[in-house]
Structure formats: structure tokens, C-alpha cells
């Protein structure tokens, strides 16, 4: 059974940092594009950052320079280091794995940034 399990969310003050982790299981994700998305109340889910199997990264303009995505294929894990957090980063953050024919989502982890 394929599973993506996020951890590391919580409450932090503006300007602080959090590190999200996503543990993938059920098969190898080495060839998948891994990513993080987020959804704030009343908003659509939006892309935050992605990393291809080859290590190429992409970030939304709103997080560029503050967030860093990384992956460890030996552990089937992907992480998101979030620095200089802002109240507008408050959302549920979802891990995503995407291959040619399949897409998987985690259950989400709440990140709340207080002003």
C-alpha cells in the first residue's frame, strides 16, 4: 500500500523556521517528481515546491528564496525547509508524488504562522 506521511508542522512566529518531512512507503519513489503543495482556508491547493528525480527544483514565486526542497532517495523521503515564515504561509501542507501514470497525496500537516 502506497503511503505518504507528512510531519513537522506546527505553530511558529513570523520570521521563524519549520522543517516538514514526508516519508513515502509502498514502493520506490526514486523516479517520481516529489513536491509540496499547500491549501489555506477558502483557497485552492497551490504548488509550493517540486523536485524531479534528477534533482531539478521549482518554487512558487511566493516562497522562492525562503523555502528549500530536498529529497533522500535512500530513505524515500522528501523535506521542505521553511525559513523567514510569514502569516500568509499559514496553510495545510501536502506531500505529493507524481510519476507518468500515478499521483499520490499525503494527509497534510498544518502550518500556522502567527504575526
Which structural traits does this protein have?
single chain, 115 residues, 4-stranded antiparallel sheet, 7-stranded mixed sheet, mainly beta, 54% strand
Gist of the model:
With 115 residues, the protein is mainly beta. Helix content is 0%, strand content 54%.
Explain what the structure shows:
By secondary structure, the chain is mostly beta strands. It has no helices and eleven strands. It has strands at residues 3-7, 10-13, 18-25, 33-39, 46-51, 57-59, 67-72, 77-82, 91-98, 103-105, 109-114. The mean pLDDT is 96.
Largest sheet: 7 strands, mixed
SSE order: EEEEEEEEEEE
Helical content class? under 10%
What is the first-to-last residue Cα distance?
40 Å
Global Rg:
13 Å
Question: Mind sketching the topology for me?
Answer:
Elements: E1 3-7, E2 10-13, E3 18-25, E4 33-39, E5 46-51, E6 57-59, E7 67-72, E8 77-82, E9 91-98, E10 103-105, E11 109-114
Parallel strand pairs: 2-11
Antiparallel strand pairs: 1-3, 3-8, 4-5, 4-9, 5-6, 7-8, 9-10, 9-11
Amino acid at each position: 500500500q502506497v503511503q505518504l506521511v507528512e510531519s513537522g508542522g506546527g505553530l511558529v512566529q513570523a520570521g521563524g523556521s519549520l522543517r516538514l518531512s514526508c516519508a513515502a512507503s509502498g514502493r520506490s519513489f526514486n523516479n517520481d517528481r516529489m513536491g509540496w503543495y499547500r491549501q489555506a482556508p477558502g483557497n485552492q491547493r497551490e504548488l509550493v515546491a517540486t523536485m524531479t528525480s534528477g534533482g531539478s527544483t521549482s518554487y512558487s514565486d511566493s516562497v522562492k528564496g525562503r523555502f528549500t526542497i530536498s529529497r533522500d532517495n535512500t530513505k524515500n523521503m522528501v523535506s521542505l525547509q521553511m525559513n523567514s515564515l510569514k502569516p500568509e504561509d499559514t496553510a495545510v501542507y501536502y506531500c505529493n508524488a507524481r510519476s507518468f501514470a500515478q499521483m499520490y497525496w499525503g494527509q497534510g500537516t498544518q502550518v500556522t504562522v502567527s504575526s
